What we know:
single chain; alpha+beta; 5-stranded mixed sheet; two-stranded antiparallel sheet; 9 helices; 39% helix
Amino acid sequence: MSLKKLQQETGIAKSTLSLWLRAYPLDSKTITARQRANAKQLNKSKPLNWYKKLPKSPYNDLIQKDSDTRNSMKISEAAILFRLAVYGFEVYSSFFDGTKVDFVVESRNNPALLKIQVRTTKRPPSTGYGVPQVSLMCQAGRKKLRRYTDSEMDCLIGYDQPTDTAYIWVASELKNHRRQISITEEASERWDKILTPACQSSRAIGGKESHLFYKQKSQERYLHCPSNTYSQSRRQIDTSIS
């Protein structure tokens, strides 16, 4: 009989009952049977088995051996870049590290530009178990973190390296989340959220003029970088042609 049932029948507090019965521990068979029963009940109330059923990526073992965070982020960005190309997006990115926007994209169905942030999924740090999560935090100085602002991204894409799956949320779906968001089956590979104009964020930069403006500014930032030897030779070629 459990402590809860004993409390209901006797009216004595569970803490007192636990103290009284400490000298009479349960045998190992009873403990194992109760643990299995509790596990079955937990799986019925919280069906999270969909993630465990996903096939593992053939590259998972190679990725797990490399603990370099920067290299892991490059793998995630490359996986998302491949998907964006497959779906016909025009993709732009900064030439410099440390920017808050990973990609700016334009779809075939809508000339509006969308700011995309790519993050790698991680297991909950407290337990290391459960469904992976995607962080909404970014660097804010030395050893400081802050949440991404609404103006810094229109779409968040979390890439799960063990299963080679992308999870997609638009900005409106992140309003009630402060630090992280757990992946869900409903967010898996939902590229329709940014392919369809009706699903895109209202903060997207709109119109062909913005498209040309962004391309022009990107070229100017690259060509005027004094530390880039290629930019110097490029300016010389442009000068000779003009």
